């Protein structure tokens, strides 16, 4: 479960933890996510991680909204560069 929490991909997490072929992981990894005990443990671990970090769901949503509305132009300048570009022959 910790591997799934780290990468949020059931198939890849299963491959990383167990020595199985991709086809087996493709079926078994997502199937585990349907298990109620696994779902409850994932929820518990996520909640514990948020508490450890000192954030809640509203903090995360606020950050996501800020990122979604961000303008890349606020961080970098587009246009003429002071660098010389050399082309190879």
From TrEMBL:
InterPro entries: Terminase_Gp1_N_sf, Terminase_ssu
Pfam families associated with the record: Terminase_2
Protein name in the entry: Uncharacterized protein
């Amino acid at each position: 479960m910790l591997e799934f929490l780290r990468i949020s991909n059931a198939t890849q997490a299963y491959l990383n933890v167990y020595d199985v072929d991709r086809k087996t992981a493709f079926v078994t990894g997502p199937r585990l996510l349907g298990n109620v005990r696994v779902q409850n443990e994932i929820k518990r671990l996520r909640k514990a991680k948020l508490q450890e970090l000192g954030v809640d769901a509203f903090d995360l949503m606020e950050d996501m909204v800020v990122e979604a509305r961000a303008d890349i132009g606020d961080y970098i300048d587009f246009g003429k560069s002071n660098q010389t570009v050399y082309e190879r022959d």
